[in-house]
Structures are given as C-alpha cells and as structure tokens.
C-alpha cells in the first residue's frame, strides 16, 4: 500500500459496515482492514502535517463504556488531535461520512475557563475573537463546543459577546465528506490549507486562554 496516497474510500466503507456490526467478533475478523485502510494511511498523513502543526495523537478505536448506555465497543470514527499545547489544536477524523476537520480547544479547567471569559469580556481580545469566529462561519465552518444555556454569572445578559461567553469549549469544524483529494497524495496539503484557516482561532486561545 502507498501510504502517501491519502486515505482510501474503503476506509469510509469500513466504518459504514462497523456501524451495522459493532461487536467484538466482527472487529477481530476485520482488524487488518482497520490497520491497512484507516490507521496506516492516517498516520502517514499526520506525519506530513506534524512539522507545521505539532505532535499528533491518534485516538484509540475502543470506546469507554463505563458510563454509557450505548454498549457498542468500538468508535464509529477514527480521530486524531494535532497540537503542541494540551487540549488546544487541530482535529482530523475519518468515518462513514468521510473526512471531518476542526480546530479549537476542548479542555476547560476552571483556570482556563476564567482566562477565556476574561479575554472574551475585554474589548480588544473579545472583538478579535468575534471577528475570527465570524470569518470561519462565513467560510463554511460550523462553530461548536460545549455551550451554556445562559450567560455565566458575573456578566450582563446583553453583553455584546454573550454567545461567546456561553462557551465552555470552543471549536470550529468542517465536513468535506469524501472529496476527490481524499484518496490522493494531495490530502495533507488540502488538510493543511483548512487548518491554516483555523489557525487564528487556535492562536487566539493559546495567547489569551492557554491551558
């Protein structure tokens, strides 16, 4: 297999079948497919991206079922997080739906959350983040994260950046699906271009609300 030729479409088919057969017997019978179609190609792409975007962590394919009503043992997607900062960085995933790319922060220690809210509240840094988020939305990214129903205590309800203050975590994602470049040597270049669009968000968090 050419590990520099992107991620094969068969990786998506693997996850489509897994959704219908999420059990140990099926997984063991198809584990080699996971290795060859998903893990190895994704690791090859991440290796190309790491020098610019940071160290890569490939998540385990096994689910933590201790606190879940859904007892399916395997994740329905393979994700990877790329960063030089704990909890702040870039995301890449492959599933039955194809590729998903993202960036932002997913950790929310009390100290970090306090720094984030203070920076959103401050005029200069808060307006800068609002512009970043608006630009990403206009570029087709979905703004996501863990969000409170109301503005947190200590801030007025009609705050000009009330929606950003509600965020406990903040990210943006894009679902290109199965574009033609997914299976080519251009995959890393295409992912990098979209991560560069996300870099202002990641850099803002690193500057104003580091872990």
UniProtKB/TrEMBL annotation:
UniProt protein name: TIGR02453 family protein
InterPro entries: CHP02453, UCP028451
Organism (species): Arthrobacter alpinus
Residue ranges crossing the lipid bilayer per the database entry: none
Any Pfam family matching the protein: DUF2461
Superkingdom classification of source: Bacteria
Taxonomic placement: Bacteria, Bacillati, Actinomycetota, Actinomycetes, Micrococcales
